[in-house]
Design brief:
By secondary structure, the chain is an alpha+beta fold. The N terminus is likely disordered. The strands form 2 sheets. It has a 12-stranded mixed beta sheet with strand order 7-8-9-10-11-1-2-3-4-5-6-12. Helices cover 16% and strands 44% of the residues. A hairpin with a 5-residue loop joins strand 9 and strand 10. The two termini are 29 Å apart. Keywords: Signal.
Length: 424
């Protein structure tokens, strides 16, 4: 689907940040309030998956360098478990000042996507016999494989932090939790894991954004402060959680940085959330079929040129060949390879050469195939029809979460738009 080329991906650290903050806060919330808070978290997750009829989740994640906001992403998701429908809007401010947005809607019959970069809606209609009975927009993380073991590890790892949580009964019902750890109070094991986690998050974001201004932390990295709060309502559901982690360290140039990661999670409008398919009257729409838009007419050879700039001129040094050999039973098979002219191997050392089978998942608009790159590593790819006689190929795709992904291929050297080769 053409959306893959221009779609706005969520920040690479979003899921990691949420998990990290949740773990850090759980670390603090031991003692008399720990079991109560953990029980409230579990109850809230279970209700979000199957108990609540409808609700809204808001997430705000901010990464600051020495007090200056570098990256910020906000997500608003509306979920209706009764109607089995959801809407999701995401806005991301990057370090270069650019703002990216995207929108998606899904229910039992339709999926709709729109990127803020283009004035077009992509619509997929599911067939009547499509099996989507187990529709779940929110999957309870405590029911995932290995969750119980991870919970035991967290409990054991931070068992000495029993005195750093405050629990208060709220006049209107429910409880309020808060806690804070200074540099001296952070255990060595938690410090090591936390430092590695945030350093990895910064590295991931820098890879995703080519002109990222985030500092690359190199030495003397330690957790300076951790704090968090949580508010539970009288029904035992967590309405709001916040977390702050400040990491101090020195970058490659020797400059000192305090990197602060702030996460805010809100659960609201329980029973009053309304989810509606967007009004597409008069809108620019591109329909996407269950087979990714492919049919037997797409069988054939497609190519584009490998071009570099050398000595002030554009020079063709080879070709990219994409062959679709079969489209049957919703499965697309083919092969892709790159040829480089003798003498230009140094300019293009890692030429691709692989075969693939691609079967779009009827229940998941983000469908990929796997292949092996020149280094013998497994990577994800995606392919879809573009205009007449054209295909678009994405390589080295990194799946961020169930709603977003990004391509790590260097666009300076790769052109994913292929034209059909016609016999004269």
């Amino acid at each position: 689907m053409k959306l893959s080329k221009k779609a706005v991906t969520a920040l690479s650290f979003t899921i990691g940040a949420c998990v990290f903050i949740s773990t850090a806060f759980a670390d603090m919330a031991l003692g008399s309030g720990y079991d109560q808070l953990k029980g409230s978290i579990k109850n809230t997750a279970a209700q979000m998956e199957k108990g609540l009829n409808n609700y809204t989740i808001e997430t705000l994640i901010t990464l600051k360098d020495n007090g200056q906001t570098m990256v910020q992403t906000s997500t608003l998701e509306k979920i209706d478990n009764e109607k089995q429908a959801s809407e999701r809007s995401t806005t991301t401010q990057q370090t270069n000042g650019e703002t990216r947005t995207n929108y998606s809607y899904t229910d039992q019959k339709f999926s709709v996507w729109k990127s803020g970069e283009e004035d077009k809606y992509y619509v997929m209609e599911y067939p009547v016999d499509s099996s989507r009975e187990n529709w779940n927009r929110f999957d309870n993380p405590f029911n995932q494989s290995g969750a119980a073991e991870i919970e035991k590890i967290v409990d054991a790892l931070v068992g000495g932090l029993k005195d750093y949580v405050q629990v208060e009964e709220r006049p209107e019902g429910g409880r309020a939790y808060s806690g804070s750890l200074s540099e001296a109070q952070v255990p060595a094991a938690v410090n090591a894991v936390s430092s590695f986690g945030i350093k990895q998050l910064i590295s991931d974001q820098s890879r995703m954004e080519r002109d990222s201004k985030l500092p690359q932390m190199e030495s003397d990295i330690f957790v300076k402060k951790v704090s968090g709060t949580a508010v539970e309502n009288n029904a035992g559901l967590l309405e709001k959680m916040t977390g702050d982690v400040t990491l101090s360290g020195i970058d490659k140039s020797g400059a000192q940085h305090d990197i602060t990661l702030n996460v805010v999670l809100k659960l609201s409008d329980i029973g009053n959330t309304q989810v509606a398919m967007p009004d597409l009257t008069g809108a620019n729409i591109e329909k996407v079929s269950q087979s990714g838009g492919f049919s037997s007419k797409h069988v054939g050879t497609y190519q584009n040129n490998i071009v570099i700039e050398k000595d002030g001129e554009f020079v063709k040094i080879g070709e990219r060949i994409l062959e679709i050999t079969s489209v049957e039973n919703k499965k697309v098979t083919g092969k892709y390879y790159e040829t480089v002219k003798p003498g230009f191997e140094a300019e293009y050392p890692n030429a691709y050469n692989f075969s693939f089978e691609y079967t779009p998942d009827n229940s998941n608009p983000m469908s990929f195939f796997t292949y092996t790159n020149a280094q013998g590593e497994q990577e994800n790819g995606q392919i879809h029809p573009n205009d007449l006689g054209m295909l678009y190929l994405d390589l080295n795709v990194e799946i961020m979460d169930e709603h977003s992904y990004r391509s790590n291929v260097d666009i300076q050297y790769f052109n994913g738009e292929f034209n059909r080769v016609f016999e004269e």
